[in-house]
Amino acid sequence: MTLTAILPSLRASIPDPLDATAWPAHTEPTTDDLRVSAVSMSRLAEVAGTPCVHTAEEAPPRYRPRDWTPRAMSVAVAAVTAVERTPAGIALELDAVLPDCAVLDEARLIGRRTTAPRTAARVGSDAVVVPGDVRVGDLVCFPCRRALTHREVVAAVPLSGATR
Hints:
Helices cover about 5% and strands about 35% of the residues. With about 160 residues, the protein is mainly beta. The strands form two sheets. Strands 4, 5, 6, 7, 8, 9 and 10 form a seven-stranded mixed sheet that branches.
């Protein structure tokens, strides 16, 4: 249990810790953003739009073998397009497809500060951990264990009026 989990009000002044082995090397959390190799994920989403992907080098494991070489891994940023709060929990809709390699329990809200406790939310059949006050328009970023291309996270939009 972390200090920010015990005292959620601290999240306004210090970032939640992250699992360094799940994120690329040189990942730095802030209270409202995440920088990966000096690239702000909030700024990347602002410039490139969502969903977007940033690829960087894998962080070294704590105990690495001599022949270990880093692989590429990615961080994906998606926007929340719908939130439904039910007695069973929170259901989210994102503007991205969640790849199989995504580490969803390491997802982080970026773009705004929040002191709300983290809770599990459903995204389709997957569970993602986000602050309880998540709302439409929020940005969520999550690490992916392999390098992704942009087309792997973009949701296919059906043509209006198209028939099959």
